[in-house]
């Protein structure tokens, strides 16, 4: 029980002893909370690759949230998200010893029908920088077509790829 409710109960009980009824005291309604937002992961790939001697693990996700689509990048537990557009995105940089690592993802060929994302081409690289040297390893390249139930709602994780997918890791 929260403190506010406890104070209300004590006050009402004290006034009841004096002959007042609870209806004599108007209770302020609780403020409405934020509207419920449902987020669905509609595509996700995680990558692990050795870059400049350090093993780097990162994930890229496409999310659907209230009929909008977002790209989320995660590296070492740090997440960053943007509304999708045809451009390249870079995660926060994290340090592994002398190596500064990040994931870079480029989206292109976005195709929408109304507010439904039909397909997108995704390219991803894991990058590291140490002592002025930058090296990136391509980890993913594919065109994704999304599947909708009854032509209306996107089925999370339901998509067809062109078959290229993850680039083999060394």
Description:
The protein has 170 residues and is mainly beta. It has one domain (39-161). It is built from 1 helix and 10 strands, in the order H-E-E-E-E-E-E-E-E-E-E. It has one helix at residues 3-17, and strands at residues 39-51, 54-65, 68-75, 78-83, 88-90, 94-96, 99-113, 116-130, 133-149, 153-161. Strands 5, 6, 7, 8, 9 and 10 form a 6-stranded antiparallel sheet that branches. Residues 9-18 and 20-26 have low confidence and may be disordered.
| Overall strand count | 10
Biggest sheet statistics: 6 strands, antiparallel
Count of alpha and pi helical runs: 1
Order of helices and strands: HEEEEEEEEEE
Unreliable stretches covering 5 or more consecutive residues:
9-18, 20-26
| Strand content range | over 45%
Mean pLDDT: 76
Structural class: mainly beta
Total domains: 1
Query: End-to-end distance, in Å?
Result: 56 Å
Helix share bin: under 10%
How much is the radius of gyration in Å? 25 Å
Shape: globular
């Amino acid at each position: 029980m929260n403190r506010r409710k406890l104070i209300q109960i004590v006050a009402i009980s004290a006034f009841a002893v004096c002959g007042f009824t609870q209806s004599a005291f108007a209770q302020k309604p609780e403020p409405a909370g934020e509207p419920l937002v449902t987020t669905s992961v509609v595509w996700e790939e995680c990558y692990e690759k050795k870059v400049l001697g350090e093993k780097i693990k990162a994930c890229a996700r496409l999310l659907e949230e209230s009929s909008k689509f977002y790209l989320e990048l995660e590296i070492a537990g740090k997440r960053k998200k943007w509304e999708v557009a045809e451009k390249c995105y870079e995660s926060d940089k994290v340090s592994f010893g002398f190596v500064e690592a990040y994931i870079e993802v480029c989206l292109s060929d976005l195709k929408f029908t109304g507010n439904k994302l039909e397909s997108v081409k995704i390219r991803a690289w894991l990058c590291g920088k140490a002592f002025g040297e930058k090296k990136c390893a391509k980890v993913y390249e594919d065109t994704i077509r999304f599947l909708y139930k009854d032509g209306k709602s996107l089925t999370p994780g339901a998509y067809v790829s062109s078959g290229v997918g993850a680039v083999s890791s060394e």
